[in-house]
């Protein structure tokens, strides 16, 4: 594994999950591994869980961390080749990536989808450019189209709470006032494909995810039907993919309630809007796994960093 | 002591002060205590002294520190229960607090008064909510109604410079162009109540502090009379409490001068506006203790963190 | 050396350069030197290279680092003495500098030129005030009129790549859409004066640098003539000094191209605007030293911090 850009890096999910579960038992066991190694975290967007959990993971591994809010602290980056840079952008990513790589050993990058143009978002220009030019391992801290550290944390959480041989897992769209990226949903779907589970996606018409990503997965537009007998219900809003980046529907009937949930466990990547995406009762109940998911962000990051450190 | 939210945590001030003075002599003596422990500092408002001194204290104790400017780096928080979160706030403090608590061992929080509504400020929603939900020790880095780490640093400073058995200490209001919170003044008053001193508050009519806090304390509206024979003059602006959060008077005659000060020591929590709150000559004279106070911020924070670490 | 404010601190450039080259071979050799020492980095302006390379240097030396974006995280500073501070500025630099000095052992400061008033910029108020009041070593991380850590990194880079006894080095102005400070150019000129090189400055009429700084140096207004037979071409935009801070000319003919460069090495401090300051082909060619320069920022900072630590 040269970088951790997407879930394609995970060959055997069960072995990754069991290794993460082992890490949790003794988080400082690899403290010597990161000694003298520097992790640089570049945030092009806001962050709470990713910011803190990735730092925590690095501390467990004995690494030093340098955090940079790129937007407010650095220079606006140009990504296109051959441009005449006489407008607002002061530095080309070619220089920025190569320079930063000289100051650290691994670089983590968060750069959300702009949701204005699908092609632009799918090009994942920030992540791709750093991976191309940096020459050091790059970790995806949520890009335009994927959030693999979240999906890995989710897989660990499911493994820790699953009691059935082949659980039924439902990914349900939920209403939200603002247009949100597809990254979390995409990565969750890709993660489900790596496991022997019964997996269904449910969303209103017009909200079907990227066909390439949901290929082979049942999409059910009747939420109640989809949730029947579910063991885990993962809820997340995303904007339309067809009508790219638009909020075409805020149907409140899609909010997850205790009644809909039944005996299933509730999952969400956070932050979550209470009583819009999911009712209070669900989050306050022991069926909610959202805190366990957030806690596992530390260990999914730690596992990825550990594997990258081992190959330095 | 579960948290350090207010001065109520201090049972015996003399023993706290003497312990802090001891710490100063050998700041690294408890360096092993914080090993593998993480302090998270959340700033909802600007900070210089608190930001740096608390980090320094943590370094002395061997802790790791993660600093987060919550406003610009994280998500806008909802504090009310039962709200339908379809407006600007993306995350509920219930989730934020519980999540952050999983990434660290102690959390420090700065959240100033909004000065718009007294009830809201007195509810101290940020501090209270974190203390309620985080499940780990919470340290007040200045809240709506109190700044106990400052008051503790002030007590240490007075102890180091006092030469009399029962010194006379005056808290004097001073003019300021903008409305300021009551937190520093409140905590200083509460700290004075814990000591055997002659304590007087002086301020113009209309600027009397919260009656509950100044209960039992002499309030003198004649500044000259109040300052007579003072050993320490603590100066601070605060907005009106009655006419909540308003600047009802900027009377320049209340500025502290060398003439008024006499032989007393001058104290202020900083930042201070020169020639508005206090004249240059005072700050430039050896009678000023403002730098000693700022320095003691490191040791007041260190003492609090040490006590919390010992109970983890 | 009490502070590192300018290149005047460097008595013997060759010995500094060879010491830096030695440091690069074993960056952690002085790791014990910084133990228990704290470096505080105060940014009044944006930064990428300086921010990360100086942190990296401190890590090599075993120091702890506290980074503060002064503008957004602290209080607006007053620099004038005797002012009545009843406007926007909340704290005087006298207090800020003395307070910060109590929390750290060395302080680094970045404060760019405002380019509005020459006298103001030449006064270097931020750097000068901290050096005057802090009482601890102050390091210039780029001030109004100089960027000595960059110039030192440049000198190291030239030493590493020079093959001639007395190389010809050209500092060439280049076009840029926005008015830029003179700091980098000034320090490069001053650094050249410390070496036995053939040095020429070339810029359009109206862009001659400060006469005091370029005293004794040939200024050639014909770029082609200046670059003839050059071994190193250092390119940088700066605004007019005579018509202070103005962009009086954006002549595209001054952009550096492969054709102009010939066999010379290309240097720039970064960030650089591609196809405005220099064409893509130059930056993408092996003749470009910009990454080597950026990498040497770590070692120029490390050398300066090491020398300051040795004198604490």
UniProtKB/TrEMBL annotation, chains A, B, C:
GO biological process, one term: L-arginine biosynthetic process via ornithine
Ranges for domain Aspartate/ornithine carbamoyltransferase carbamoyl-P binding: 2-160
Pfam family, one: OTCace_N
E.C. numbers: 2.1.3.11
Keyword Transferase belongs to the record: yes
Positions bound to N(2)-succinyl-L-ornithine: 142, 176, 236, 273
SUPFAM superfamilies: Aspartate/ornithine carbamoyltransferase
Pathway(s): Amino-acid biosynthesis; L-arginine biosynthesis
Alphabetized GO MF terms: amino acid binding; ornithine carbamoyltransferase activity
Domain (Aspartate/ornithine carbamoyltransferase Asp/Orn-binding): residue spans on this chain: 184-305
Domain of life: Bacteria
InterPro entries listed in its UniProt record: ArgF'-like, Asp/Orn_carbamoyltranf_P-bd, Asp/Orn_carbamoylTrfase, Asp/Orn_carbamoylTrfase_sf, Asp_carbamoyltransf_Asp/Orn-bd
Family matches, as Gene3D superfamilies: Aspartate/ornithine carbamoyltransferase
Binding, carbamoyl phosphate: 47-50, 75, 110, 147-150, 269-270, 297
Known partners and oligomeric status: Homotrimer.
Family that this chain belongs to: Belongs to the aspartate/ornithine carbamoyltransferase superfamily. SOTCase family.
Role played: Catalyzes the transfer of the carbamoyl group from carbamoyl phosphate to the delta-amino group of N(2)-succinyl-L-ornithine to produce N(2)-succinyl-L-citrulline. Is essential for arginine biosynthesis.
Protein name per UniProt: N-succinylornithine carbamoyltransferase
Organism: Zeaxanthinibacter enoshimensis
Lineage: Bacteria, Pseudomonadati, Bacteroidota, Flavobacteriia, Flavobacteriales
């Amino acid at each position: 594994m040269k970088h951790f850009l997407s879930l394609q890096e995970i060959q055997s999910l069960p072995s990754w999950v069991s290794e993460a579960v082992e890490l949790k038992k003794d988080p400082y066991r690899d403290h010597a591994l990161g000694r003298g190694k520097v992790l640089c975290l570049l945030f092009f967007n806001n962050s709470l869980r990713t910011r803190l959990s990735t730092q925590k993971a690095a501390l467990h591994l004995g690494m030093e961390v340098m955090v940079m809010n790129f937007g407010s602290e650095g220079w606006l980056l140009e990504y296109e080749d051959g441009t005449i840079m006489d407008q607002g952008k002061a530095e080309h990513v070619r220089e920025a990536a190569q320079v930063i790589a000289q100051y650290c050993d691994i670089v983590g990058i968060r750069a959300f989808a702009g949701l204005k143009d699908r092609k632009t978002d799918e090009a994942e220009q920030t992540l791709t450019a750093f991976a191309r030019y940096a020459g050091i391992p790059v970790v995806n801290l949520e890009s335009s189209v994927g959030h693999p550290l979240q999906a890995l944390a989710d897989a660990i959480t499911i493994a820790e709470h699953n009691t059935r041989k082949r659980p039924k897992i439902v990914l349900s769209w939920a209403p939200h006032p603002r247009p949100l990226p597809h990254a979390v949903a995409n990565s969750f779907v890709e993660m489900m494909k790596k496991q022997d589970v019964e997996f269904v996606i449910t969303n209103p018409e017009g909200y079907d995810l990227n066909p390439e990503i949901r290929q082979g997965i049942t999409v059910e537009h009747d939420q109640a039907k989809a949730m029947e007998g579910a063991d885990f219900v993962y809820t997340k809003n995303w904007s339309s993919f067809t009508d790219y980046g638009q909020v075409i529907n805020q149907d409140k009937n899609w909010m997850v309630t205790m009644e809909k949930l039944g005996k299933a466990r509730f999952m969400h990547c956070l932050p979550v809007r209470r009583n819009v995406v999911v009712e209070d009762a669900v989050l306050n109940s022991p069926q909610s796994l959202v805190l366990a998911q957030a806690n596992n962000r530390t260990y999914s990051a730690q596992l990825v960093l550990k594997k990258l450190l081992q190959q330095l």
